[in-house]
Each structure stands twice: as structure tokens, then as C-alpha cells.
Amino acid sequence: MKNILSVIFIFTILLTACSKKESLGFAAEQDVKRNYDTIAVDSFSSGAVSVDIARKIRMSSPQYLDSVKQAKKLQEEESKLKAELEKENKAKQEEEKKKKSVETPSGPDSKTQ
Prior knowledge:
The protein is an all-alpha fold. It is 64% helix and 0% strand. The termini are far apart.
């Protein structure tokens, strides 16, 4: 009797362990097939990207375009600062010329004395 019960117990365990599992809905894993291009491309093959095309791709990236915009802004700021400095220097030079012309008397009598 014990042998029959143990055989039935083992048989039920095997049937439950080998039975087909049903999906649990959202909790179950979803089988998603992803298609990856895993083919190695030789630099001389027809699918290889040329240097010019790779450069164009890099240049069209948002990160590159942002860096170009930032560089242009910096250049504009530098040119504005240079223009302001030039104006200040010209104003100083004109003031110095005016001071020199006022300090040196203009007339023939001033040279002889």
C-alpha cells in the first residue's frame, strides 16, 4: 500500500512538473524578436560607409550642431568686445591729442621765450 501511494505521489509530481504552463497575463514575459544587424562589414565591401558619409553623419548630429552654435556665439561676443575696446582706445587717443594740443601753446612768441 505504501508503494502504491508513493508511486501515485511521484506520478502526480511528474505530471504537474511537465505540464504546459499558461501565461499569467501582464506578469508573463513577452517573447520579442529583435532583428539586429550582426553582419560584419568590411571596409572594402559594398555596404561599408565611406569617410565622407560618416563625416556628414557626424556633422548632422545634434551635439555637433549645438557645439557649432556655441562657437559662433563665442566668436560674436569676442568681436563685440574687440569693437568696444577699439572705440575706447580711439576715444582715449582723441582725448590725449586734445590735451597735448591744449598744453602746447600755438604761436611764434611762445617758442622764443
